[in-house]
Amino acid sequence: MKKSFIAAMITGIFFVPAFAGNDCQKSLPGKWYFDMGGGFIVTVEYRGDGTFIQKMTSVTMKGTYAVKDGGFETTIDGQKADYTIVSCENNKMTVRRNRDGRIMEYIK
Asked: Hey, what CATH topology would domain 2-107 get?
């Protein structure tokens, strides 16, 4: 009995984030804001057609995105970046950039 309870707890710990990411992926399309630090606020709009536009001050970048296991991947000028959705609720989503572990809080 104890062993099955412990196994269930361990399984839950590893699988809950994946389910959370899948639910959050449905909320990805739309306009989001996040703080890059140093007073720089970035606006990114993920469109339903798999494209996005990201703006920071006078710099605008365009690219594509694809939903992947528990997160998403962006591509700008052939450069790919993978992100894991850590959590989301209401109009807030916490995202981890996989290459360096940077955590960003997106607000809709």
From this structure: Lipocalin (2.40.128)
SS3 101: coil
Within 10 A of 20 (CB to CB), how many other CB atoms are there?
17
Instruction: Give DSSP secondary structure letters for 13-55.
Output: HHHHHHHHHHHHHTT-SEEEEEEEETTEEEEEEE-TTSEEEEE
| Structural tokens at position 70 | 């528990």
**Spatial separation of the C-alpha atoms in residues 83 and 72, rounded to whole Å:** 5
How many residues in total does the chain contain? 108
Look at residue 39 and tell me whether its pLDDT is greater than 90. Answer: no
Q: Is 27 exposed, middle or buried (0-12, 13-18, 19+ CB in 10 A)?
A: middle
The amino acid at residue 23 is: D
Contact yes or no for 46/28 (Cβ under 8 A): yes
12-26 tens-digit pLDDT: 333 334 434 456 777
Q: What is the DSSP letter of 50?
A: S
